[in-house]
Amino acid sequence: MKSSSALFPVTLMRADILGDLSEDIYLVKHNRDPDQSVQIALTRVGLAEFPEKSGFPLVLVHGSFTNRGFWLSPKGQGFARYLVEQGFDVWLFEQRGHGLSPRNQDYSRNTVERYARYDVPAVHEFIEEKTGRFPAWVGHSLGGTMIATAVAAGFCDNTIPAFVMFGTQVVRPNLALQVPLLSQITRGVVYFKQELDGRKLKIGPENEPAGVINEYLARHSLLGRWKLPSTNEPLLPRWKEECIPMLGVSAAGDTTDPAKYCQRFYRMYGGPKEELLLGTENGFSKDFAHIDMVVSKEAELEVWPKVSNWLKAYAG
User: Fold this and answer.
1) Residue 304 backbone dihedrals phi, psi, to 5 degrees
2) Chain centroid, CA 232 distance in Å
3) CB within 8 A of 136, min separation 6: which ones?
């Protein structure tokens, strides 16, 4: 089968119609990771009646224990649809083993660093090949961490025009992990289990591999820091020197990634930045939480337009 890309093998899995939306679903096999079995599912969403997509490209990246359904429901509703209606060319990125992305052979050793080092640049380049423009990136929680890692490490060579992070931080100390040996014991248990099941934990429809979980535990344990595990290179110093426009969104009622830690992380960023704190003190109808800051009727009315308008300023 002929590849959909001259860069590396890309398969068009299928082209579907979801109500009045179109979906072109690609599998990107970039062959850059040491595990050559890695394939990333990438869904291009558009309006079915307008098959020619010429808007500014955006990539949406879900957080942990979920998939593209965070942005677009099976009935075709969600933030992704809203952005399509606003004229953007929307692409949904699914992390390895999530949603339509198949599990790679080395699944349990997947890490955010590997996602940021290999998957993000490949998808970034493929979308530029298809559209003629490098896309802006939007991430929620772990998806935001993945994007921030790619930005701070320079994996996309500063070709990202702008990025948005919802509920993202890497600086919150986990008090439980400050207990001597507890972090090491926890990481050992996770490594033995190989993965955590989001359904059993009642926190989402997907699993997360041991590599991603242990990377998080190491980062938030005693003496932990945000770094590239493969090289031990710290990322905060480079984060403070970046120059790509960034919008940092935090939610006043977020207990998973509390607003004060998200704000602390955003304010460390060296490039042009804006913040959006979703709470009643800032004129919103409620103190938003970790999920409903994106997925809720209130978010549709109050949050989505603000983020869309911010992105339009960089859609030249």
Assistant:
1) -55, -45
2) 22
3) 56, 57, 58, 59, 160, 161, 162, 163, 164, 311, 314, 315
All residues at 6 or more sequence positions from 273 whose CB lies less than 8 Å from its CB, including other chains: 245, 246, 247, 248, 266, 267
For helices 210-219 and 182-193, angle between their N-to-C axes, nearest 10 degrees: 170
Q: How far apart are CA 129 and CA 39, in angstroms?
A: 18
- Domains in the chain: how many in total? 1
Residue 283 confidence (pLDDT):
97
Measured CA to CA in angstroms, residue 135 lies from 23, 24, 101 at distances of 18, 17, 20
Domain contains 209: no
Least confident of 21-25, 249-253, 312-316: 312-316
DSSP 119: I
The domain of 88 spans: 10-170+232-312
* 3-class DSSP state of 211: helix
Radius of gyration for the alpha carbons in the chain, expressed in angstroms and rounded:
19
> Is 178 a member of any domain?
no
**139 in any annotated domain:** yes
CATH code of the domain containing 100: 3.40.50.1820
In residues, how long is the chain?
A: 316
pLDDT single digits (tens) 68-96: 999 999 999 999 999 999 999 999 999 99
How far apart are the C-alpha atoms of 216 and 165, rounded to whole Å? 17
- Whole-structure pTM value: 0.95
Does pLDDT of 186 surpass 80?
Answer: no
| 254: in domain | yes
Number of Cβ atoms within 10 Å of the Cβ of 313: 11
